[in-house]
């Protein structure tokens, strides 16, 4: 019994001692390595750039938890030492021209250490080479980050500098990497290295890996492989495959650009299609209504200076209203006296467009005004190396589809829409049934004009706003209406989109101006074969 | 103008507008010099038939010829007019901003090319002809006023006059007596009767008395199809005609 | 039988008499006021004044050409300035070649802008323009051929009314874009300028200006008379019939497309000649002459003057351009308002233009019920 007690006691003591030594070990591990860390940082103060290189390596090897932060700060010019006691600190934000005080951060605790005047501290400088080394070193840290996107960035960084050490890093990482996207990037990087080797089998294997990539640099490398041997042929075939796929994605990008260009045309044209098709009115001031919408966006943004993200949302109904009211004013004062005389309407509304342009010029001057794109609309979606979709254009395409659908619904499902269609098909009957046709005319014109205003909001995101904005697009929008068929919303949609795409397709071959000329001529010839457009109005009534 | 005595042959003409069949395998024939009346309810296809003959509308299927070798369906409107087919429209379409005289002058038979008309001077015989027609249509005092200021009946007569000036082999007359007084109707009947023989005349009308007074042969159209043909008595007794048109 | 033959020719045409009279006054009077009347007198017309009057006369000819197709045939072409500019460029090319070695760069063959843009040799289409005869031919042929090609396609497919107007706008817009390009060989956005002489005569001398003005005036008069002859002939009546009831005219046996094409081409040639006379007097031609607004302005000159009269168009051109010169030198911003208002007021209240006022016919606007399918929608040729 005594023996078992002793044994238990001994075991417990042993465990206690073990625990104590461990914690002592941990305690011991902290302070000495902190001191080393701080000391190493201190060495950076007076070191030459060559030595700084080596010091950075040592820091990286040290395994101190703050090394990453330190190196990041160093690479971002945020590593300073205090003149008075030579202690090294990080600063919160890098100093600019005007900075007078800096917020110091303790390198060990990472807590704030109070402010300091710029004159009391000295920056520990870097040069380009050092920055590169820092970048690669940080990338190596990044490789083991928990966040896959950080790992991906790290791989890209490392690829800029594929020395033996980094290659080994990549190979090691490849074995344990779980994220497929990151793994592919690693394997591609490794394959690029292997391609430069001498082992034919390895090179062929590398080519097989590289073949699956879509990157331009990979393509360049493969195309650079000379020789007619197995390796050379494999490289050529792989290059061709990549080229094909890149062209495919590039075509999609062109298509997307064409659609975004087309959707602007569609937005402008559907307003015109309503007034022209439903009412038989040619409105040469349509472009100016759009211009008013664009200026409304500018004004709204100016009135809401701190709300760039939401000002554009507010601008949409505002622009609609401004343009719609202006349109109704035009209809009531000029157009309603000229129904049945389309050529006169054309001329009179042209006069209105001149007046509107001059009014805007007087108020806002002829200078370009730029409208700021909100953050949620900026930036690019990089689908892959060959396909980049800008958000603003994407939103415009979506916006166009929404507006188009909304308009269709209004015309087909609401009472107002029904009245509009009734009046356009048989005015006398509509009146006999109690529809106030004059009111409907004004509303229809207002609707078409409002859509033009909304088109102006979209346009303000793509280009500068100036009084002649309407003139640049009016001819294109008429062409869309003529091409798509009068009075037909679907015609305008199809017509506008296809004209945008065709214009975009031609541009790389012919240049922007020639592409436009070609589209115009093609349209003139098209009208010859189908004088009433893609979707002509049918039926006996339409032949009168 | 030389005699162009031809038979108008329409064979299984079909015309659809948006699913509605305006003409449904319409078949008929008009002999040279005949005076034929076409009757039928509204929407029977009478005007559409004329549209096809004169080239305004192209049929979906079927054929139309004027004599042998003149395929109307492959010709343009001016070509058809030059081939000897003239038309007076349902709604009087005269040139409102030209004078009565000028309207008739434009309808003069002859070379209608630009250069010809640019340097054309009217001959004495052409003047005589215009005068004759002016007398027949009773518009001699009005020869220098703008056609747009004429009364409705006078416009109808002017258009008939223009038709006569064209000297066509086949005259298509669409509702010639709409809006006319009884005396005018009588005169119109006499005129049309006098024109037949030298010309083939096809008249579309609703006024049954008028039709009876001029018709030798009557064709009844219904829903784009010929349902009866014969002289006035035969047609009036036809049960189908009574059912759809003349009433019980 | 009454003498019907006398009816038509005896129709009084006082408008023509007034027009030719006024033209004669200008053609004789203005040179006198420049050459004979001393510079100190308030009646003296300076070289600038000569240029201005010459310009107005060219515009009058352009307006007459537009009235011919619009007022009489109902073709609202919003691209006539394209033909004007083509004629102008043809003359410009001749004048550029005439500069020869006297240009800034001194090249005997290549005009300055070509040297500046590093051209190695003269583009093929410039050959021949050192001969006046050839250039003279091209001034009429270039616009004529374009009008023929365009009209052939457009009229044959029976495009009319607003559709046609829009397409003519597109045509002149496309030409403007093309001529703005530096590599077209037409001087790019600078166009042609710095002319020295024409047929050996110094363009900057007053006497040559006077001669050019007189030639312009005579051309205007002669063209007017030819147009008057056309519209008074039976062809002219056919053309007016086409304007008022196109399909009826077809059913009478007239080839409407052919008539339209003849008139359209002739009008384009007149416009080209007007442009060719304009360039040596103004001293410059550039691609902004092709801009769509220029063509629309011509239409308003005709509308203001009174369309369908020929002399009205000339008068309108003179009046509106004089107003423009006056306004843009005193209150430039007001001109755009004035021009815009002119468009609106003339279409609403003055369908017959100034001529209408003079002959006492002004209309009150009244609300007309809109027809949803305008009469100008092209005829279907449903196959």
Characterization of this structure:
The complex is a heterotrimer of chains A (544), B (248) and C (383). By secondary structure, chain A is mainly alpha-helical. Chain A is built from 19 helices and seven strands. Chain A folds into three domains: 35-126, no CATH class; 144-226; 258-470, no CATH class. Chain A has helices at 2-46, 49-62, 67-75, 128-143, 148-159, 164-176, 180-195, 200-211, 216-223, 230-279, 286-303, 308-333, 342-364, 391-413, 415-425, 427-432, 437-460, 469-484, 489-529; strands at residues 79-82, 88-91, 101-105, 112-117, 121-123, 380-384, 387-390. In chain A, strand 6 (380-384) and strand 7 (387-390) form a beta hairpin. Chain B is α/β, with parallel strands linked by helices. Chain B has one domain (8-246): P-loop containing nucleotide triphosphate hydrolases (Rossmann fold, 3-Layer(aba) Sandwich), CATH 3.40.50. Chain B has helices at residues 46-54, 77-82, 100-106, 114-118, 124-137, 152-166, 182-195, 208-214, 232-237, 239-246, and strands at residues 8-17, 20-30, 35-39, 61-66, 85-88, 170-174, 200-204, 217-222, 225-230. In chain B, helix 5 (124-137) packs antiparallel against helix 6. Chain C has 383 residues and is mainly α. Chain C has one domain (13-358). In chain C, helix 2 (14-35) packs antiparallel against helix 8, helix 3 runs antiparallel to helix 11 and helix 4 crosses helix 11 (256-282).
Could you list some keywords that capture this structure?
heterotrimer; A: about 550 residues; mainly alpha; 3 domains; five-stranded antiparallel beta sheet; two-stranded antiparallel sheet; 19 helices; 7 strands; about 70% helix; elongated; disordered C terminus; C: about 375 residues; two-stranded antiparallel ribbon; 15 helices; about 65% helix; disordered N terminus
């Amino acid at each position: 019994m005594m023996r078992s007690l002793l044994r238990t006691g001994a075991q417990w003591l042993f465990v206690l001692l073990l625990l104590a030594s461990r914690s002592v070990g941990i305690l011991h591990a902290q302070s000495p390595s902190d001191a080393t860390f701080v000391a190493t940082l201190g060495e950076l103060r007076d070191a030459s750039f060559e030595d700084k290189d080596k010091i950075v390596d040592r820091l990286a090897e040290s395994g101190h938890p703050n090394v990453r932060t330190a190196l990041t700060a160093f690479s971002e010019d945020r590593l300073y030492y205090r003149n008075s006691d030579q202690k090294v600190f990080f600063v919160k934000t890098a100093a600019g021209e005007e900075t007078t005080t800096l917020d110091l951060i303790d390198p060990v605790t990472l807590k704030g250490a109070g402010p300091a005047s710029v004159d009391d501290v000295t920056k520990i400088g870097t040069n380009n080479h050092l920055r590169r080394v820092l970048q690669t070193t940080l990338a190596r840290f990044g490789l083991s980050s928990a966040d896959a996107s950080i790992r991906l960035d790290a791989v890209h960084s490392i690829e800029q500098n594929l020395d033996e050490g980094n290659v080994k890093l990549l190979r090691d990482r490849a074995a344990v990497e779980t994220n497929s996207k990151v793994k592919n990037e690693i394997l591609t990087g490794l394959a690029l290295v292997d391609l430069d080797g001498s082992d034919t089998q390895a090179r062929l294997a590398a080519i097989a890996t590289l073949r699956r990539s879509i990157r331009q640099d990979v393509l360049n490398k493969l195309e650079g492989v000379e020789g007619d041997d197995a390796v050379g042929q494999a490289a050529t075939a792989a290059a061709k495959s990549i080229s094909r796929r890149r062209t495919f994605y590039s075509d999609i990008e062109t298509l997307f650009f064409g659609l975004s260009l087309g959707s602007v045309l569609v937005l402008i044209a559907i307003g015109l299609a309503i007034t022209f098709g439903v009412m038989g009115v040619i409105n040469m001031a349509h472009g100016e209504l759009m211009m008013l919408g664009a200026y409304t966006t500018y004004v709204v943004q100016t009135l809401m200076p701190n709300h760039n993200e939401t000002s554009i949302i507010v601008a949409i109904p505002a622009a609609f209203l401004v343009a719609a009211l202006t349109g109704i004013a035009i209809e009531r004062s000029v157009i309603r006296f000229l129904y049945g005389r389309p050529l006169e309407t054309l001329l009179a509304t042209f006069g209105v467009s001149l007046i509107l342009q001059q009014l805007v010029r007087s108020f806002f001057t002829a200078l370009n005004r730029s409208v700021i794109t909100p953050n949620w609309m900026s930036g690019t979606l990089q689908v892959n190396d060959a396909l980049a979709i800008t958000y603003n254009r994407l939103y415009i395409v979506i916006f166009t589809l929404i507006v188009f659908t909304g308009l269709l619904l209004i015309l087909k499902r609401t009472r107002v829409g029904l009245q509009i269609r009734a009046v356009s098909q048989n005015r006398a009957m509509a009146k006999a049934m109690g529809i106030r046709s004059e009111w409907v005319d004004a509303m229809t014109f207002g609707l078409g004009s409002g859509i033009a205003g909304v088109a102006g909001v979209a346009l303000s995101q793509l280009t500068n706003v100036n009084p002649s904005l309407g003139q640049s697009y009016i001819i294109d929008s008429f062409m869309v209406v003529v091409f798509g068929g009068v009075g037909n919303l679907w015609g305008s949609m199809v017509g506008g989109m296809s004209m945008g795409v065709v214009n975009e397709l031609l541009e790389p071959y012919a240049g922007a101006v020639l592409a436009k000329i070609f589209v115009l001529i093609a349209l003139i010839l098209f009208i010859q074969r189908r004088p009433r457009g893609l979707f002509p109005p049918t039926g006996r009534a339409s032949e009168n | 103008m030389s005699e162009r005595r031809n038979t108008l042959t329409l064979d299984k003409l079909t015309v659809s507008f948006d699913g509605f069949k305006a003409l449904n395998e319409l078949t008929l024939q008009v002999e040279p010099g005949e005076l034929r009346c076409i009757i039928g309810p509204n929407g029977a296809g009478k005007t559409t038939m004329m549209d096809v003959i004169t080239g305004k509308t192209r049929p979906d299927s079927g054929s139309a010829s004027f004599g042998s070798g003149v395929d109307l369906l492959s010709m343009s409107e001016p070509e058809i007019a030059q081939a000897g087919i003239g038309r007076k429209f349902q709604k009087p379409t005269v040139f409102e901003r030209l004078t009565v005289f000028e309207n008739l002058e434009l309808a003069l038979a002859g070379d209608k090319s630009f250069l010809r008309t640019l340097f054309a001077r009217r001959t004495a015989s052409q003047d005589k002809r215009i005068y004759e027609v002016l007398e027949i249509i009773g518009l001699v005092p009005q020869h220098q006023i703008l056609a747009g200021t004429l009364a409705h009946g006078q416009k109808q007569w002017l258009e008939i006059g223009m038709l006569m000036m064209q000297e066509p082999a086949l005259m298509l007359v669409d509702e010639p007596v709409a809006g006319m007084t009884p005396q005018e109707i009588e005169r119109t009947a006499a005129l049309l009767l006098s024109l037949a023989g030298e010309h083939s005349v096809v008249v579309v009308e609703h006024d049954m008395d008028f039709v009876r007074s001029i018709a030798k042969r009557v064709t009844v159209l219904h829903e784009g199809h010929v349902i009866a043909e014969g002289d006035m008595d035969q047609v009036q007794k036809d049960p189908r005609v009574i059912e759809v048109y003349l009433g019980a | 039988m009454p003498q019907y033959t006398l009816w038509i020719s005896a129709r009084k045409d006082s408008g023509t008499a007034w027009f030719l009279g006024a033209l004669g006054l200008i053609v004789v009077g203005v040179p006198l006021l420049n050459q004979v009347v001393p510079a100190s007198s308030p009646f003296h017309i300076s070289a600038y004044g000569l240029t201005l009057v010459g310009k107005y006369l060219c515009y009058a000819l352009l307006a007459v050409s537009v009235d011919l197709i619009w007022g009489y045939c109902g073709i609202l072409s919003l691209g006539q300035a394209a033909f004007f500019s083509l004629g102008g460029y043809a003359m410009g090319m001749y004048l550029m070649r005439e500069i020869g070695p006297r240009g800034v760069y001194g090249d005997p063959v290549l005009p300055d802008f070509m040297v500046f843009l590093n051209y190695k040799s003269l583009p093929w289409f410039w050959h021949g323009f050192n001969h006046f005869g050839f250039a003279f031919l091209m001034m009429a042929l270039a616009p004529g051929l374009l009008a023929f090609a365009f009209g052939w396609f457009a009229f044959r497919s029976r495009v009319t009314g607003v559709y046609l107007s829009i397409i003519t706008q597109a045509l002149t817009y496309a030409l403007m874009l093309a001529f703005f390009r530096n590599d077209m060989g037409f001087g790019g956005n600078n166009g042609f300028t710095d002319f020295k002489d024409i047929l050996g005569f110094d363009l900057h001398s007053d006497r040559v200006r006077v001669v050019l003005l007189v030639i312009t005036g005579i051309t205007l008069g002669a063209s007017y008379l030819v147009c008057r002859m056309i519209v008074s002939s039976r062809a002219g009546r056919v053309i007016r019939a086409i304007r008022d009831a196109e399909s009826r005219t077809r059913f009478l046996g007239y080839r409407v497309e052919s008539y339209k094409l003849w008139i359209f081409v002739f009008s384009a040639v007149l416009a080209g000649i007007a442009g060719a006379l304009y360039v040596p007097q103004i001293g410059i031609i550039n691609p902004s002459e092709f801009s769509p607004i220029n063509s629309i302005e011509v239409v308003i000159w005709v509308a203001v003057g009174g369309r369908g009269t020929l002399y009205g168009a000339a008068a309108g051109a003179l009046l509106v351009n004089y107003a423009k010169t006056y306004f843009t030198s005193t209150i430039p911003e007001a001109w755009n308002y004035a021009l815009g208002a002119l468009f609106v007021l003339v279409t609403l209240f003055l369908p017959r233009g100034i001529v209408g006022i003079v002959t006492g016919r002004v209309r009150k606007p009244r609300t007309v019920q809109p027809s949803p399918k305008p009469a100008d929608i092209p005829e279907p040729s449903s196959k």
